[in-house]
Amino acid sequence: MLNRAFRGFVCYLRMTGLAYADLESLRALRDHHRPGIIAPNHTSLWDAVFVLACLPRPICIMKASILRNPFLGGGARLAGYIANSGPSRLVREASGALAEGGQLLMFPEGTRTRRDARWINPLMGGCALVARRASVPILPVFIRSNSRFLEKGWPLWKRPKFPIRISFELGEPIEPDDEPSARALTARLQRVFEENLSRPHKFRRQSEC
User: Fold this and answer.
1) Going by DSSP bridges, is the β-strand pair 138-145/164-170 parallel, antiparallel, or unpaired?
2) Where are the beta strands (DSSP E) in the chain?
3) What is the pLDDT along the chain (209 residues), one digit of tens a residue?
């Protein structure tokens, strides 16, 4: 039901001309039956909505406070979403969920990209730890947009310029055993993001004046 709701919202944005998201690259995830970690850069507050709309068996990490919310928590728990209530527990529960099948959406930055970051924040190590413990690949997703709407620090009262256009590009999978340690795997993922996001692109991130 959540997946259909996300897909409906994406369709609504397109039909109203508010936002156009190029999700063609993510269609392949519907036929990707092996468990894995979907790891996008985190440009905006609504990134997860677009990615989850393309995942047939999504597992999402949410704030523990949301899972305890009487209005929002029930549906999220039924969907198998995981609380970010501590690194050890998160790694254990995420690994267990991946062992049962499914695709884990996890933002390696841990938060939205800072306004002063050129391409991406320094990555956290959680993504690599889960990948190595669960023995699943990391599938990087490169998100670019012509707008910084809902980025970290965006004032809620500030109206963006419509239509917003967003590009989602699925990268090559990175196997957890490609590197000798979680730290080395995180460093490699950082390089992959920086090399890809710095390439010429019509939606390449612009430096703030």
Assistant:
1) antiparallel
2) 19-22, 36-40, 58-62, 82-83, 103-105, 138-145, 164-170
3) 778 888 999 999 999 999 999 999 998 888 777 899 999 999 999 999 999 999 888 888 877 776 676 656 666 676 677 877 778 888 998 999 898 888 999 999 999 999 999 999 999 999 999 999 999 999 999 999 999 999 999 998 999 999 999 999 999 999 999 999 999 999 999 999 999 999 999 999 987 64
Q: What is the rounded CA–CA span in Å between residue 151 and residue 115? A: 7
Residue 38, token pair as written in the block: 């979907």
Neighbours of 45 (CB within 10 A): 14
Q: Is the pTM of this model over 0.85?
A: yes
Taking a C-beta distance cutoff of 8 angstroms, is the pair 148, 156 a contact? no
Length of the chain: 209
Kindly list the domain boundaries of the chain, sorted by start residue: 2-197
